[in-house]
Write a structure and sequence with these properties.
Helices cover 46% and strands 8% of the residues. It is mainly alpha-helical and 114 residues long.
Length: 114
């Protein structure tokens, strides 16, 4: 502890940065879908009641299965689609995944983002 107190400001900054990296790594290890859920306050359509949206480009199968109308088979197809064709550019592209038509997409639209 005494050595830490005797370090200069630059060394303390480096130590702090290393601690932050370790803490962030631990957080993402504990919560792998942390980057897949986005808080939508200003951009959510008025009155839709949706506070969080799932990023379909980053969500795990387990998180996709939490969406209405999405089970394990369709979640796997979404992941397979984005691995084959790259990230979705628009949420509407989700209808190119087998098993997602206008009805299911309409149910999902307010819960997803890219």
């Amino acid at each position: 502890m005494r050595k830490l107190l005797k370090t200069n400001a630059y060394e303390k900054l480096v130590i702090l940065a290393a601690c932050l990296v370790v803490a962030a790594s631990a957080m993402f290890a504990a919560f792998p879908d942390a980057g897949a859920v986005m808080r939508m306050e200003a951009t959510a359509p008025a009155g839709d009641g949706v506070e969080f949206r799932v990023n379909i480009n980053a969500a795990s199968a387990a998180l996709l299965e939490e969406l209405p109308g999405i089970g394990p088979v369709i979640a796997a197809r979404i992941i397979e689609y984005r691995e084959s064709f790259g990230p979705f550019e628009q949420t509407g592209q989700l209808m190119q995944v087998k098993g997602i038509g206008p009805k299911i997409y309409g149910d999902l639209e307010n819960f997803i983002c890219v």
